[in-house]
Write a structure and sequence with these properties.
By secondary structure, the chain is an alpha/beta fold. The protein has 13 helices and 14 strands. Strand 5, helix 6 and strand 6 form a beta-alpha-beta unit.
């Protein structure tokens, strides 16, 4: 069960339609597929989705293949926390690769013992329910996309905002007028000032919009702004870009800045994600889990983590639905439900 080799392969994915968030539009994404190979030939799979905007990463981290292998070669995957500890050295330089290799370690172990990864992580849930995202667009596009998501069976819809305040308000209100019986996660992706965020919240509250989380309204470093918005908000306030590592989350909790933390394995890896779950549960902070343009295997990592820990109130694991020609690997998608499986 010892690690013999590690292979990285870059793969480009195209979005079904341009994915528009605050001050960023993407038509394609390059991810890194990972194979971790054991001495008996068993292969563990993982996927990294680098994000320069969030983590300062680029696709060039693929060059770390030999260095990462040297750090973990010869380690036994049954002692996976030892592997995790070695890979924590890449928490700042290559967190998405750290996540992919950590998951590949667990996946190889799961294949040897014929037990799905989510059960190795605790087996708390047999499935999770994901939202689906409406990116920034015209009012007509926004309503059309939201209706399509609702008709596909999703009962939590994620709305991207954060560029033009009045337009954002009008778009969300238009969707709320035509769709009933859902909750919204509203994500500004750092696009607002605290004053703009409070104006947005006021408009939502006055119009009875059922917002479950108002996510990352201000720049990542503005912890004080998050705290101010939380004090003035009728809705729970969540951190995403502000919550990259366990140390960020520790500070958010200490300063009373948020009600929710969005864990993304691509930001933290599995080791930090496990620590963040424990911290937030101890502090009474809610949890959601998100993704960063992963394809099938990448989303599978988060599905298994979420089902295994059972820690999350909201699941934003839809990136494979936003990319073209993605095969679901390691889980089964039925409407908004995702069932982790042995693979």
């Amino acid at each position: 069960m010892k690690i013999r080799d590690l292979r990285f392969v870059e793969k480009k994915w195209d979005f079904v339609k341009p994915f528009h968030i605050a001050n960023s539009v993407s038509s394609s994404k390059v991810n890194i597929e990972v194979e971790l190979i054991l001495t008996d030939g068993t292969v563990g799979l993982g996927e990294a989705s680098p994000s320069f905007r969030v983590n300062g990463e680029s696709e060039s981290i693929v060059k770390l293949q030999s260095e990462m292998l040297e750090a973990i070669v010869g380690l036994d995957v049954r002692d996976y926390r030892k592997v995790f500890k070695k890979l924590d050295a890449y928490s700042k330089s290559a967190p998405s690769l750290k996540a992919a290799v950590q998951f590949a370690t667990l996946h190889a172990f799961s294949r040897i013992v014929s037990t799905p990864v989510y059960q190795l992580l605790g087996g708390m849930k047999d499935f999770v329910e994901t939202d689906k995202t409406v990116s920034i667009g015209s009012l007509e596009e926004t309503v059309s996309d939201a209706l399509e998501i609702f008709e596909a069976g999703h009962r939590v819809i994620k709305m991207k905002v954060g560029e033009v305040l009045q337009s954002d308000i009008e778009r969300v209100l238009a969707v709320n007028d035509v769709i009933k019986g859902v909750k919204y996660i509203v994500d500004a992706n750092t696009g607002y000032s605290p004053k703009e965020a409070l104006r947005f919240i006021d408009a939502m509250y006055r119009n009875n919009v059922p917002v479950g989380i108002f996510e990352q309204p201000v720049p990542a470093e503005d912890f004080e702004g998050l705290k101010m918005i939380r004090k003035g908000s009728m809705y729970p306030v969540g951190a995403d870009e502000s919550a990259r590592t366990r140390y960020d989350v520790m500070r958010l909790i200490k300063e009373g800045s948020v009600d929710f933390v969005n864990i993304k394995l691509m930001k933290s890896g599995l080791s930090d994600a496990l620590a963040i779950v424990e911290m937030c549960e101890s502090a009474g902070i809610g949890l959601m889990i998100g993704c960063m343009s992963e394809s099938g295997i990448g989303v599978s990592q988060s599905v298994h983590f979420a089902a295994g820990t059972g820690a999350f109130m909201y699941h934003d694991l839809d990136s494979h639905l936003l990319l073209k020609d993605v095969e679901t690997i390691g889980f089964r998608q039925e409407r908004d439900k995702q069932y982790p499986v042995l693979f």
